[in-house]
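G.,

No rush on this.
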Amino acid sequence: MPGDGAIPFIGESYWAYDLSIAVLNGSVPVDRLNDMVTRIVATWYQLGQDANYPPPNFSSNTRARTGPLYPAALFSPTGVVNEYVNVQADHYKIVREIGRDAITMLKNDNRTLPLSTGAKIRIYGSDAGSNPKGPNDCENRACDIGVLGYGKKTPLLHSSPFLALL
């Protein structure tokens, strides 16, 4: 399954063999399995991934540039599995625009606003800055060092940034 994050052939996949067992013992109906497959395959076709779609340029099994081309196979040729493609481009512009547009002004009780030029604004929390080693440095996105590329396994342990006026 795409995005699994774990390595299925060593038993760490979300479903791995358990889905096959559940279908065979009847605890998951075959109709439900067909529904799962239909949703994946229909999306694959709808997005045109069946024709002229680029192959993956990264491996979730290793961070090295080269590795097994078929990691679950008993024997596999070795080749380039991570091309380290920079997909960030100029996305920082839209991120800043979204951040600017998301700012919420509060009721100006006691004429607190505008802030004087001497006021300090601090941002606290694990999302207060970028991970110095890159947005996806943490294995399985399981750390609290800056903003992550996408979700986390333990969202309850993750603190949100907040502003404080000092």
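When you get to it, here's the other one too:
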Amino acid sequence: MSAASPFRRRIALLLVLSTMLPLAGCSSMGTLRAFLGGTVVVTDAELQQRFDRRFPRDFELGGGIATLTLEQPQSRLQDDQLWLAFDVQATVAGLRVGPRGHFALVSGLRFDPDSQALYLHEPRLTRLDLPRMPGLPAGEELLALGDALLAEYARNEPVYVLSERRQSQVPLGRSVYRVDIENGRIVIGVTR
């Protein structure tokens, strides 16, 4: 029995080492969780910091007839959606002072594996407050113009690009199967 006992201990030690060595290569629990299948999380604060760095921004409308400047972004992750509001100033050709106001949208999010980024998914305007001015489209026409601008933005502009550290949590051969908004966080589900 004493001769078998050292052999069993060596086998047990080899099993423990063979299990621990791959785990030692993982630089973080996030990487380990992604390797086994899990989630990548982006907080509301991280998303707000991204918006703060990217705005103010100008968007040209109607071939240069008008420019919308979006500033002071305010984002909130709530009710399975991204809620986003901006202060807006319109500069219209021929007007000395353009109207100022506010605009807000609500949107889902989608993940693009090629760019490793989150994009707006089916955004829609929920508020567009600009003073009525001659030459500006009215009501429904202005909302339709805003929705068209949002649709183009959603196709081409990422809302959030995963950092290299977070990209390592989605290793090659793994794929994202869901993007949810839960408790003020974006939760990206990674397959096993």
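The longest strand covers residues 66-78. The CA atoms of residues 34 and 170 lie 6 Å apart.

Enjoy the weekend,
O.
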